[in-house]
Design brief:
The structure holds 2 protein chains of 2 kinds. Chain A has helices at about 5-30, 40-60, 80-115, 120-140, 150-155. By secondary structure, chain A is an all-alpha fold. Chain A has 2 domains: about 5-60; about 80-155, no CATH class. Chain B is mainly alpha-helical. Classes of the chains: A mainly alpha, B mainly alpha. At the A-B interface, helix 1, helix 2, helix 3 and helix 4 of A face helix 8, strand 2, helix 9, helix 17 and helix 18 of B.
């Protein structure tokens, strides 16, 4: 009988990860066992596997401690969470295409709407101040160019 | 000696140098508080301005900037859980919970006092014991450093996770992630999936911002906040929650003193640095506490310890530079460059040829500690008003700052993707009870551990006994094993008590 199913699943997941690393990832992405570059990844993977086995054993033997789960799963805002992750993924991928200003502007608007902000005046001021400060700091003070975006570059050309 | 000190004092203790030090501290604190900009960048930005100024004025400004940036990192770490600099990451563990309890002012002031005390202790050590400490640091070869880092890794495994196995798992996973990129010895590609972006490895700052900031935002979003009431992080109306009382400071003094010594020791060792010192300082505070369970929930010692340790690195990191000409950290390497630009070659001869500059620098260092008590106060006030902003307005700004902070270091969009990836991973790690903090510090120490391990093996022709036969290396190995056994025993006895 497993007393802590969550840790049991975690241990099994890590063992699967270690098997994947040892038999596929390390041979293909690093090199053979005899190569010096493989020494640390192999040692660490074996160590992770050993720890995973001990995690599985402890999950079978021991009940979860009352405070062992610092962030228990709550589902009060799953939609907001998924929306924010989606916006951030789109932000990271689209900045290359549409540039810092347009991308950050769109991402901030999307984030404000996701969080239920309805005061458009405040929202606009915050967006312009944030982007303005960042633009001046990076472009003018630090001379660190912000991405213009391939689409915008082509459009400007 | 007294004549020399008098000459150094008349050279260094001038209004101009005080002014330089104050400007440096202000700029350093400001830049340090912005995630994505760190002390090294701030110093590098200032160096071109100092070309034509006197060496002592320039050094006063650069050192002030460095010290200010180390403290500045803690402002955003405490207020937003977004460490401005990597060395402030450990400060966020207890600093942010204090902010959530409405005690941001208290946390910021404790961080400031601990930073100043740590800095003074370290500068005193530099002043009095530079040559013997440098000689001790020189006794550390690759095997000793490898074992020191092993000890540090075992120590940090106890950070953040309540299960020792999960702490060790997080640490090991961090070391594995650190092996992504070019092999440090053979430059062979590892886990790069043929991507040029991964050749240099995973960007530290991008990973740090993702793991600590974005993941925390996701956790808070999921837990939800009441749109009508809980929009802002509350600030306590009790004035006692905005200051540090003498009994509170007295309670933390032992921790601050120990962390300062630890930080000074780490600073004197080339390559170990303030990030390691901060995490080790935090861990020693937790281990020596009678109530370790309160750490991570808003314990003042949890703010004081890492801040004292990371600021204590500053003075001590100058020891190998001044005495041996070896930069102890990246920031010191940049300051060393400034010395050279002014025609001063750091090393043993500098003490002989320009003692007035060296002793003048020592005096300015100590003086800058006292300026540190005043200069960052306006920034603290601005920061405190930021937390009054409703979270629905604050979170989008922080998320965009995360993106641009990740981009800023290398001006590379790949780092923004890395930040988002680690944001989601950090969220999942927290859900699984693993420790993003342990993973992060292992990621930082991992490459050093590998280099020293392999250098040690090269020294011995592949014989691993070199790590167990040299006295200092053996000492650290035994300490590591003792830590594992002690931690396991303590957790077991705690569990037995609960049962």
């Amino acid at each position: 009988m497993i007393k802590n199913p969550k840790d049991f699943k975690l241990g099994v997941g890590f063992i699967a990860f270690c098997i994947f690393c040892l038999f596929y990832l390390i041979p293909n992405q690093v090199g053979g066992i005899s190569e010096a570059a493989s020494l640390l990844p192999i040692l660490i993977t074996i160590f992770i596997a050993a720890l995973s086995v001990s995690l599985i054993f402890s999950s079978i033997r021991l009940e979860p401690a009352g405070d062992s789960e610092p962030h228990p799963v709550k589902t009060s805002k799953p939609k907001t969470l998924m929306m924010v992750i989606g916006i951030m993924i789109a932000y990271a991928w689209l900045m290359d295409v549409i540039g810092f200003l347009l991308c950050s502007f769109s991402a901030m608007i999307a984030l404000f709407f996701t969080f239920g902000v309805k005061n458009y005046k405040k929202m606009t001021i915050i967006i312009f101040v944030t982007l303005g400060v960042l633009y001046v700091t990076f472009e003018k003070l630090l001379m660190a160019p912000l991405p213009v975006g391939s689409f915008i570059e082509r459009f400007l050309d | 000696m007294w004549e020399l000190l008098g000459q150094a004092a008349s050279n260094s203790l001038t209004v101009n140098n005080f002014f330089g030090s104050c400007i440096g501290i202000f700029l350093g604190s400001l830049l340090g508080a912005i995630p994505g900009l760190n002390g090294t960048m701030a110093i590098a930005l200032l160096i071109p301005i100092t070309f034509t100024w006197s060496p002592l004025f320039s050094i006063a400004m650069l050192i002030g900037c460095w010290k200010g940036s180390v403290y500045g990192g803690s402002i955003s770490a405490i207020l937003l859980n977004a460490p401005g600099t990597p060395e402030a990451a450990a400060t966020a563990f207890d600093g942010y919970p204090l902010t959530q309890q409405g005690k941001a002012g208290k946390a910021l002031k404790m961080a400031l006092y601990a930073s100043v005390i740590g800095s003074i202790i370290s500068d005193m050590l530099l002043f009095g014991a530079a040559p013997p400490i440098a000689a001790l640091a020189l006794m550390f070869g690759p095997p000793e450093l490898a074992m020191l880092i092993l000890f540090a890794l075992i120590v940090v495994a106890g950070t953040g996770s309540r299960s020792h196995i999960k702490g060790l798992l997080s640490t090991a996973f961090g070391v594995l992630l650190a092996s992504v990129g070019l092999d440090p010895v053979t430059t062979q590609r590892r886990f790069t999936f043929d991507s040029l972006d991964l050749d240099a490895g995973i960007g530290l700052l991008a990973m740090l911002i993702g793991l600590l900031v974005m993941s925390e935002m996701l956790i808070q979003m999921e837990e939800g906040w009441d749109q009508s009431e809980g929009k802002t992080l509350k600030r306590s109306a009790d004035p006692a929650d905005s200051k540090v009382s003498w009994p509170e400071l007295k309670r933390c003094l032992g921790t601050i003193f120990r962390s300062s010594l630890l930080g000074s020791f780490c600073g004197a060792l080339p390559g170990v640095g303030s990030i390691t010192a901060a995490f080790m300082g935090y861990d020693q505070a937790k281990r020596t506490s009678k109530n370790p369970e309160v750490f991570g929930k808003g314990e003042l010692k949890g703010v004081a310890a890492p801040e004292a340790a990371n600021n204590a690195v500053c003075g001590a990191a100058l020891i190998p530079m001044v005495t041996l000409g070896i930069p102890g950290s990246l920031s010191v390497a940049v300051i060393m460059g400034a010395f050279m630009i002014h025609g001063l070659a750091p090393g043993p001869m500098l003490m002989v040829e320009h003692p007035e500059i060296i002793y003048g620098m020592f005096m300015l260092l100590i003086l800058s500690d006292f300026f540190m008590l005043i200069i960052p106060l306006p920034l603290m006030k601005i920061g405190l008003s930021v937390i009054q902003v409703p979270r629905a307005y604050l979170f989008p700004v922080i998320l965009i700052l995360c993106g641009i902070g990740a981009y800023g270091t290398h001006q590379n969009m790949f780092d923004v993707k890395v930040m988002v990836f680690f944001g989601v991973l950090g969220y999942l790690l927290k859900k699984w009870g693993l420790s993003p903090a342990a993973l992060l510090i292992a990621f930082i120490l991992g490459p050093m551990a590998e280099v020293y391990l392999r250098q040690g093996l090269m020294m011995s022709g592949g014989d691993p006994s070199i790590f167990f036969t040299r006295p200092i290396a053996l000492l650290f190995f035994l300490l590591s094993m003792a830590t594992v056994v002690w931690t396991a025993w303590r957790r077991r006895s705690k569990r037995a008590d609960q049962a």
